[in-house]
Write a structure and sequence with these properties.
membrane, coiled coil, MFS_trans_sf, Kazal_dom_sf, five-stranded antiparallel beta sheet, 16 helices, mainly alpha
Length: about 525
């Protein structure tokens, strides 16, 4: 994992500095105002290339480092959770393993929480920090052209992963089964049993038992249906979680740094609480597999239905003159046509394909200071203020600043509702995760996300129907007759076993044998 993270950070050091398109040249003299509205003047701009030309010029193979880094990192990451959970299941009491797994899952959430906070910090730092003078930048983290220091987090993770690997070398391969007395005889017998198993594995090889084992899994309807559910739901959540920062950026006008921070604060702590609470409930009430299946299914369904409320928590598009509104402030369709030029800026000789937004003091955004009709400017970098803007219709002095305008109080409230609903949904869904693990381990295991998860409930209901017809080990019989017969059979077997053994076993030895 450490090597993979290091490889993923290499492109930053092998590529040229990042350049963003802007009407304001950070290399020239900012006081020349050559980027503003100059009637009958000559503008000096870098030509905007056609997107098809840009695609043809892409010859970099830096993506190979990302691909290979992800493959190597995946090789190291994949065994941790399945083998770790199996490690707990092998050596823990059945009533304690849900709680232990809950702690493991909580630890797996605390790590991403710290990672999201680190990512939030890195996204707020300019990608080429240390190589360029950040005081000359004319964009902020809320700008769509901003690129954060994505590589910095990978370098930190590379070092942390290498350090984390050290304690794993000190974990024992086997442990005494929890609940058994830790005496010399038990440990001795356990070691002999392990040695016999190892000799058998060396003699027979893994291929002898592998195919029959896979056949039993593939022929197990409950296991296969659960795997189907997991795949569909995982695809839905990966899609939603991957693009949620971008969704918060575009929908609610947040920067990448703020979006990542909000996701970490609102989503991951409820998930931790849900994992712990699910483990405690399983331990406290001794939930059976059938009960766990019902809990997991219905809680997940409730969270799925709550997810549809997110479709109501949306904000209007940003008011950009010439795109979503006219220069007179009237809302218009995005596809109404090219109305970027108006009477107030037609003689300014402005570029019409360059996105360098400014916010007027009338609350409307403009594609650039030139298209806003601004004639003068004061200050440098992100603190630049444009004045005498002919397209900004206000009663006082018309001015603008760099960046898009804020979406307002109503949009901020919608964001709060969305985050609160997301936190509630995360808690409910994680509460059902531990019962889902028990089903897997004890016998057997705003659009696209909604559609994917909806289809997953079809096999979920089939699981409930199949489990309803089965009597699983460890469950009470439905009738007193079956219970009496089980007791009688147990007594007969016990008597036969006692008669066959000439040596009388004491209570401790009998318990150990059982």
């Amino acid at each position: 994992m450490g090597i993979g993270c290091f490889l993923k950070s290499l492109p930053h050091f092998l590529m040229d500095l990042y350049e963003y398109e802007s009407t304001v040249s950070v290399l020239g003299n900012l006081s020349s105002n050559s980027f503003l509205c100059m009637e009958n003047g000559t503008q000096i701009f870098r030509p905007t290339e056609d997107p098809s030309d840009c695609v043809k010029e892409v010859k970099s193979l830096m993506w190979v480092y990302i691909l290979v880094g992800n493959i190597i990192r995946g090789i190291g990451e994949t065994p941790i959770m399945p083998l770790g959970i199996s490690y707990i299941e092998d050596f823990a009491k059945s009533e304690n393993s849900p709680l232990y797994i809950g702690f493991v899952e909580t630890g797996a959430i605390i790590g991403p929480l710290i990672g999201l906070l680190l990512a939030s910090f890195c996204a707020n730092v300019y990608v080429d920090t240390g190589s360029v003078n950040t005081d000359d930048l004319t964009i902020t983290p809320t700008d769509t052209r901003w690129v954060g220091a994505w590589w910095f987090g990978f370098l930190i993770c590379a070092g942390v992963n290498v350090l984390t690997a050290i304690p794993f070398f000190f974990l024992p391969k086997t442990l005494p089964k929890e609940g058994l007395k830790n005496n010399a005889d038990v440990i001795k017998n356990d070691k002999k049993e392990k040695q016999r198993e190892e000799v058998k594995k060396e003699k027979d090889g893994i291929t002898k038992d592998f195919l029959p084992f896979m056949k039993s899994l593939l022929c197990n309807p409950i296991y296969m249906l659960f795997i189907l559910i997991s795949i569909v739901q995982f695809n839905a959540f990966v899609n939603m979680f991957t693009f949620m920062p971008k969704y918060l950026e575009q929908q609610y006008g947040k920067s990448a740094s703020d979006a990542i921070f909000l996701i970490g604060i609102y989503n991951l702590p409820p998930i931790c609480l849900g994992y712990i609470a699910g483990g405690l409930i399983m331990k406290k009430f001794k939930i059976t597999v059938k009960q766990a299946a019902h809990i997991g299914c219905w809680l997940s369904l409730i969270e799925y239905l709550l997810h549809f409320l997110c479709f109501l928590m949306i904000c209007d598009n940003s008011s950009v003159a010439g795109i979503t509104t006219t220069y007179k402030g009237v809302q218009q369709d995005l596809y109404v046509g090219n109305t970027i030029l108006a009477d107030c800026n037609r003689d300014c000789n402005c570029p019409t394909k360059t996105w360098d937004p400014v916010c007027g003091n009338n609350g409307v955004s403009y594609m650039s200071a030139c298209l806003a009709g601004c004639e003068t400017s004061v200050g440098t970098g992100i603190n630049m203020v444009f004045q005498n803007c002919s397209c900004i219709q206000t009663s006082g002095n018309s001015s603008a600043v760099l960046g898009l305008c804020d979406k307002g109080y109503d949009c901020s409230m919608m964001l709060q509702y969305f985050l609160i609903l997301s936190a509630i949904g995360s808690f409910i869904y994680s509460l059902s995760a531990i019962p889902g693990y028990m089903v897997l381990l004890r016998y057997i295991y705003l659009g696209l996300p909604a559609a994917l998860r909806g289809t997953s409930y079809i096999p979920a209901f089939l699981i409930l129907i199949i489990l309803k017809k089965r009597l699983l080990p460890g469950e009470n019989a439905s009738s007193g007759t079956m219970l009496i017969e089980a007791k009688v059979t147990g007594k007969e077997n016990e008597c036969k076993d006692m008669n066959q053994n000439s040596k009388v076993l004491n209570d401790d030895e009998l318990k150990t044998k059982l």
